[in-house]
Specification:
disordered N terminus; six-stranded mixed sheet; 27% strand; Immunoglobulin-like; globular; 827 residues
Amino acid sequence: MRTVPLLALLAACTGPVTEVAWDPVVSGTPMAGAAESRREVPIGVPLGCFSSRSKVLGSSAYVDRRQGSYNTGFDESGGIHTRSTLKVLWLENGDDNLVIIKIDACLGNDGLVQVVTDELEAATGEDLDGRVVISVSHSHSSTGCYADQWHWFLGVDRYNEEIFERNVDQLVTVALQAHSNRQEAAIGSGWAFDWDPAGLVYRDRRGENNDLLIWEDQADWVTDKDPHMNMLKVESTEGEPIAMMVTFGMHGTSLGGDNPLISRDSSGGVESVVSEHFPGVVMHMQGAGGDASPGGSDRHFARIETIGEYALQPILDLWEDTPTSSDAIDMESASGHVWQHHSQIEVTRTGTTDLRYSELQPLEGYTPDNEVYADDGSIISPIDEFNAEYGAAFCGGDPLFPVGGINAEVAPYDSCTDVSLLASVIAGTFDYNQDDIHLPFAETMKAGTTATKFGPIPTLLPDGSTESRPFTGGFFPGEVTATFAEQWRRRADAELGWNMPVTFGYSQDHEGYLLIPEDWLLGGYEPNINLWGPLQGEHIMEGMLNYAPALNTPVHEDIDPTGYSAPTEFTPSELPTFTPDLTPTAGTLHTAAPVEDFFLPPGLSIDLTMPAQVERMQMIQIAWSGGDAMVDPPHVYVERDNAGTWERVQTAMGRPVSEAMTDILVTHTPDPLFPKEDPQDHHYFAAWQAVGHVKDRAGLPLGSYRLVVEGKTWDGGDTTWPWTTSDYTIETASFEVTPATVSLQSGDGGLYAWMVAPAQGWRLVDLEGNSQGLNPVRGTISVSVDGAAAQDIEVQSIAGGKAFIPIDVSSAASVTATDSFGNSGSL
């Protein structure tokens, strides 16, 4: 495992002050480079974020009795809905750098930040210490095993060095591509307020704080979802888009804990749709997503696509409204790890409050006063209910493990589980010897944070006015909530002079939900994840507020000359030596299910018949023998015959349609399912639905198509990753994509028209339709009555998945209606 040396707690840093000649901050021309790539993670790596996927907490994503190569306490993933992506925006001005990396993952990890930083420094020669940010999408259907943090094993399974190093390797590769893509740039920032009033994109999910009053001038929305959206607009000096970084908070929980397929979830839904209308890199960054659920309509996988459709126009509008400039800017960022042991945590609010914990007492026999609030409603301090030397989990809700509390009898402390008692559960669940676990968990003692300031750049403010000002922001290590984000904006304005700083959540590290004390004390789900009680969230914020003033000076100050706030030290462990299977039959296409336990995407039944024709919206299925999932990330492409030449089908923005997107579902089945130590054959399944990727969903071009699989097999001989592989390719027989059948019905003095998606469909066809039911025709419809010349008539309205066309056909003997894509039907 990746060992974590236990660092001694430093009470304070004292000693003589030595004057240092800091380098001046120098303005320079803004430069920017962006890059993106799909993230290759083996099928079988368990999905993170839902603890219910743990084998001791319900196995909610159980596939079958297979034994995986990477999981310990969680269920294996069984396939792919959408592959994870890696996206990087590299900013610099000749004086300093800021590297912002976005990865589809459950939670941040400061060990990943440090190793990636070191490798980028070695490759570029740049000083990047404290200047590399890794933010995650918080998809609850992304893969785990990459975080060597004991307490988060309950969220992402036991740490695996191979998965960690795979992530590092791919992150560094994409970041270096962004570095090589740098060019002179024009940059601007824009704000939109209350841009999703109907909750179509995201919604408040925390009802416990609806009546909480924190500030006298508090707006109604403060205890609802955070209604702010920020746009960092980056384009070339010629006005060509480079990247948009759009920030708002939204949980990655469109798919539940029972989903076994790797998916980018809601954040990926936004990026996928917007990316097909924008010729640059689209990065959705999480803001105050801790108490915000995804919106959307339709069902399951199609719901994810609807979220992107609902977010599309507000995002594009904000891009258009945001001004940019290529004028010289100052740039500076700083990172600090905030100490957060029980004895160090406090919230002072610049001296206006004094919130801290009582001195620790032996837990056995200890009884707090169980009084939380004073008569005036203020929080009583010191707080004696949180008497937890190593922290406590599950406060405010039902404890996952009834293994011991902290002796408080008042909510929300009465449900807290002491971490020292939880350690034995972690050891048993994730196959460790109890003696291997040392308290306190070293990774819980510090929280990684980053603050940034660059500019001035043109800024569109929420009231519609524009001014030139610095871009400021804080990258916080956890699930930022709306009240936390508002407190950050208020305190940064008052203490740093940073008006409207951006709040970035799920960045650098992970400490659970970040709430301010007044909100934490109301209980509910959110307080049960963080380990250091009601003061932890704002204490981390104060840590950033303590070092961020260095970014306001005209010099590059070292915010940590003593090393007090240095990152937790992670050291590499040995790579696993479990090897893949040799698969000599890889590349064989199946005509029937190869094994009885063949795993399909949820809701699908198998039909491997290759038809000569397939109507739009219907599906094609294939199955084949491939390589071991440890080495084979099968890429499934759609090809179309163009005058005798097979060409990859591409999206509007030139991306190949593949299993990396929403278009193709893939699953994997080993045979036999267990034991994993014995030789296994590895079978795969893929299904493609004949729907346009994002644009013209009901208008996929007609013609001759086929599916092509490109995979890998292990050559043998290696003992650890990376594995030596050979390629295999499969090409299916061709089939014709034909127009969809339009159903017609006379009624109400007009004609109703619709198309029917298959009962097993997963693709969004129409926002006012149903991925497994009725979908309206759109636009101008060509209608012929009793064989007469066709009339072009506009659809007047849509209801219940049916389009209403204003032409009376009640007395007609025959009616034919054809939409603009050639989909047609007769009555």
